[in-house]
Write a structure and sequence with these properties.
The strands form 4 sheets. Strands 2-5-8-7-6 form a 5-stranded antiparallel β-sheet. The protein has 2 helices and 17 strands. The chain is 6% helix and 47% strand. The N and C termini lie far apart (59 Å). It is elongated and about 80 Å long. With 237 residues, the protein is mainly β.
């Protein structure tokens, strides 16, 4: 920026339950009309953190108001379909100086509209968009080398944060019988989990651990048995 003096006009931060402190799969892109407005007003859009952007304004300059009110439009562009699978939609948000509204163009989740009206001084605005994770039932399918009517399986979480049906359900998957467990409650989706699951075979002589290396469902792995509200992981035993 050379020797020019700049000041932060707007800070935009996106927060998401699913991603936590990791990168959210969204980018902020100004509309073509807004690009011209930014240039006319010597404003720069700059990413300063993984989920934070700022609009920087030349301090000695004034806003160029060709109308009593101008609107800057920024598209929240989705960079991976994973975002749609894990994100709850939000109601349109607004206050006196900005709006989040539904977007019409493909690949854009929301549009941020920042309203500039009768402003001469550069007054800092802070915009925070909190996004909640979807809640889903967790389904675990265990694909065995063979099926035996005498095998009784149990899936447990050592921390008891997920509770499953007591007995594995036998279902058909790709022309074979598999064992199916489903969480009793819906779970808030996260990028990673701290669950410690174990698959046990219940024997008269006691329990035998069949697997401790159990994959958790990913947000985009929709259940073929309950596609509306359940996600799946596939495990071979």
């Amino acid at each position: 920026m050379g020797n020019e003096k700049y000041k932060i006009w707007v800070t935009i931060e996106i927060q998401h339950e699913f991603y936590g402190n990791t990168k959210i799969l969204l980018d902020i892109i100004p509309s073509s009309h807004t690009k011209r407005l930014l240039a006319e007003n010597n404003i720069i859009l700059k990413k300063v953190d993984i989920n934070k952007w700022v609009l920087i304004k030349l301090c000695d300059d004034h806003f160029t108001l060709k109308k009593n009110e101008i609107i800057f439009c920024f598209h929240l562009h989705v960079t991976s379909d994973e975002f749609y699978y894990c994100s709850e939609n939000i109601e349109n948000m607004n206050n006196n100086s900005f709006f989040f509204v539904d977007a019409d163009n493909m690949g854009t989740w929301k549009t941020l509209q920042i309203i500039l009206k009768d402003e001469v001084e550069i007054i800092h605005k802070s915009i925070i968009l909190p996004i909640l994770s979807k809640h889903k039932y967790f389904e675990y399918l265990f694909i065995p080398k063979y099926i035996s009517n005498d095998i009784h399986l149990k899936l447990i979480d050592d921390k008891n944060e997920i509770v499953f049906n007591e007995v594995a359900e036998k279902v058909m998957f790709e022309n074979s019988s598999v064992y199916r467990f489903v969480s009793k409650d819906k779970i808030s989706l996260r990028k990673s989990y701290k669950y410690k699951l174990r698959l046990l075979e219940m024997r008269k002589s006691g329990e035998k651990i069949l697997s401790e290396n159990i994959l958790n469902p990913e947000a985009e792995n929709i259940s073929i048995f309950s596609p509306a509200d359940t996600i799946t992981s596939y495990n071979y035993i």
